[in-house]
Amino acid sequence: PAIDDDSAPRVRVAVLSAVDLKLQAVGELDPYCMVTVGRQGMPWAAKVAKNPHAKLPVCLRERHPRWNAACTFPLSAEVSAPGAAPELTVRVMDAHATRADTVLGEVRVLLR
User: Where does the C2 domain lie (predicted)?
Assistant: First the structure.
């Protein structure tokens, strides 16, 4: 969902790269990155559904992907309210053409 209020607090995130991604099975990795900000403890699907998010490009056949991308997210009133615990989540996924994409790793950072 878009937030049109220019006065809303924002967070800017730089996603540079990943190193030594592990193969989950036989084949090659096609990693991409998803980034979002939501309330701490919120399940991934709810974070992505309720908050702005970014999907970085797929890096074909790459165990050491480089995105060198920056994303800016406005923080919703729910996330930026006093007492709220906003959390940045970065998830690295492996893209698949014939089945659901798989999670390779995730990091969550509490924003203060």
Answer: 1-112
Residue type (1 letter), 89: T
What are the tens digits of pLDDT across the range 5-57?
677 789 999 999 999 999 877 778 999 999 999 989 889 999 999 888 999 99
In a domain, 2, yes or no: no
Residue with tokens 């923080």, as numbered in its chain: 75
Nearest to 76 by CA among 49, 47, 110, 38: 38
Domain count within the chain: 1
Residue 26 in any domain: the answer is: yes
Answer whether residue 10 is part of any domain: no
- 63-95 confidence digits (pLDDT tens): 999 999 999 998 888 887 888 889 999 999 999
Residue 52 domain boundaries: 20-110
Predicted TM-score (pTM) of the model is 0.86
The upper half-sphere exposure of residue 91, i.e. CA atoms within 13 Å in the direction of its Cβ, equals 19
According to DSSP, the β-strands at 31-39 and 86-94 are antiparallel
Q: Report the C-alpha gap between 18 and 10 in whole angstroms.
A: 25
